[in-house]
Every structure is written in C-alpha cells, then in structure tokens.
Write a structure and sequence with these properties.
Elements lengths: L1 H6 L2 H21 L9 H29 L8 H10 L2 H34 L1 H5 L1 H31 L1
Helix pairs in contact: 2-3, 2-5, 3-5, 3-7, 4-7
Length: about 160
C-alpha cells in the first residue's frame, strides 16, 4: 500500500482522487446515489476511478466543446513542448489548468446525473437499461481517451525530432 501511495503524483491527487471523492460526496447528497464507501481501500480505488472518468469526460467532451465555442484557445502542441523545456512553470500551470477542466467536468456530470435520474423516473426504458447505458458510455469514453492519448504520444514523438 505504501508503494501505491508513493507513486501518487500531485496530478493523480488533484485530477483523479480529489474530484472522485468530491463527486461521490455531492452525488450522494444531491443525486440520491450512495457513492461513499466505509472501506477505505475500496473507496480509494472507487474514488480514483470515478475521478479518472470525470477527467476523461473533461478531456474528451468539455475541452473540445470549449475550443469549439472559442472559450479557450490552445497553443500548438509542438510549441507547448518547446516552451516546457525552457520554462518548468508551464507544466505546473498546465496541471492546474487540467484540474479546473476536471472540476468543470465534475459539476457537468453531476448535473447530467441528476437530469438522467429525473428522465429515468419518467421513461421506463432508461430505468430498465441504465446499467447498459452507463457501461456503453464508459466504453466509448475510454475508447476515445485511448485514441486521444495515442495522438498525444505521436505528436510528442514528432516534436522530439
């Protein structure tokens, strides 16, 4: 267990664990879901996974949407890599930026969860199929995350040449 804790970076804590815990507490309070665990080990893994899902939703849905509506504009990735080599603070600022995106994602997912529950109360199909819907969304989210991460790796390799 100590080895696992030693490998947790500030990025893991603030972009996965913290939003996972916060979402679980808020969803338990506002969405009538019981996402708070008495077992600390099971809870830690569940909160981390929840935070990972929230972070991926932010990366795959929130970020492109905010770019599309021109709320944010990103620098070219190659320029980001070069600037990061010269200014180490850029990595810290990028980590904070990702945390803000993850929190935006967390609140969006909380609203969507509450909205889904209200719709499921009206539409029996949603209530009867919520597990399949949820798992299908997770599968799609991680497929898209895998593709995005692969593209980042490819861009980073090209930028290093």
């Amino acid at each position: 267990m100590k080895d696992i804790l030693d490998k947790l970076t500030s990025y893991n804590i603030f972009n996965y664990l913290f939003p996972g815990v916060l979402f679980s507490i808020l969803a338990t309070k506002f969405a009538n879901l019981n996402l708070v665990f008495d077992d600390l080990i099971i809870g830690a893994f569940a909160y981390y996974f929840t935070g990972l899902v929230i972070s991926r939703f932010g990366s795959i849905i929130i970020e492109p949407f905010l770019k599309f509506i021109r709320f944010v504009k990103f620098a070219d990735y190659k320029d980001f890599i070069e600037a990061s080599k010269k200014d180490s603070k850029i990595e810290v600022l990028s980590e904070s930026n990702n945390m803000f995106r993850t929190l935006i994602s967390m609140f969006t997912l909380l609203f969507l969860t509450i909205g889904f529950q209200k719709l499921a109360d009206k539409w029996e199909f949603l209530k009867d199929n919520q597990e399949v819907i949820f798992l299908s969304i997770l599968l799609l989210l991680f497929l898209l995350s895998y593709r995005k991460q692969t593209n980042y790796i490819t861009k980073r390799i090209k930028a290093s040449k």
